[in-house]
Amino acid sequence: MIDRSGFLREIKSRDPHLGMLLEDLFNGVDGVSNQLGVSPTHKVQPPDPIKAINVKAGTDHVHVTLTDTSQVKKGVNYFVEWSANDPSFANPHVEHLGASRGRMLALPAKDDGNTPINYYFRGYSQYPGSDAQPNRIVNGGPYTPTAVQLTGASKMTPLASKGSGTAAPDGSQGGKGLGTDLQRPPQGPKIPVPQRAF
User: Could you read off the pLDDT of 42-69 as tens digits, one per residue?
Assistant: First the structure.
């Protein structure tokens, strides 16, 4: 890490114009980083854990809101994950709320076999330049997730989750939001490129 004040003082004493230019560049990088919720040199700390998740079920819709009274910076993102019939969230579906702390979700009340689906919900926050907050708030509590059932007649067995961000594309890494890695390598076998005939 550069000691900016000492560095700029030394540069300004030798070349005042270059010193002013570098100071403006430093301030510009800091300003962009603060506006975007990132750091030019490292990951930023994730936001504090959100305080509560609220779930209200209807016939074929669920309204989920997140309560977050902690201090947050501009650029904070919120996520809600839902899991069908699995309170362990082994393969959750991720809903990226962006800056919003609430979403109305249209979900089927029953699977294709006409069996009511038990839905479980959890939420968390993340900055673009941080990992997701590891302390996810679970509807009903982490040890006693509360199932939510819809009362409508809609039927569909949800497909398997495909995850989000740079997490594994098989949905097995829930709670990652935008991801923890900057880049995820390609997954699965490479598709051969057809040879061109000349």
Answer: 899 999 999 999 999 999 999 999 999 9
pTM of this structure = 0.84
Calculate the CA 39 to chain-centre distance. 17
Looking at residue 197, its amino acid is A
Between 196 and 26, whose confidence is greater? 26
Cα separation, 189 vs 66, in Å, equals 39
> Residue 130's domain spans which residues?
52-138
Query: Does residue 162 lie in a domain region?
Result: no
- Of the residues 138, 153, 176, which one is the last residue of a structural domain? 138
State whether 27 and 77 are in the same domain.
no
How many CB atoms lie under 10 A from the CB of residue 169? 15
Nearest to 138 by CA among 153, 123, 158, 118: 123
Asked if 123 and 137 touch (Cβ cutoff 8 Å), the reply is: yes
- Which among 92, 121, 138 is the end of a domain? 138
Q: Phi and psi at residue 29, in whole multiples of 5°?
A: -60, -45
Query: Number of folded domains in the chain?
Result: 2
Task: Give DSSP secondary structure letters for 5-37.
Answer: HHHHHHHHHH-HHHHHHHHHHHHHHHHHHHHHT
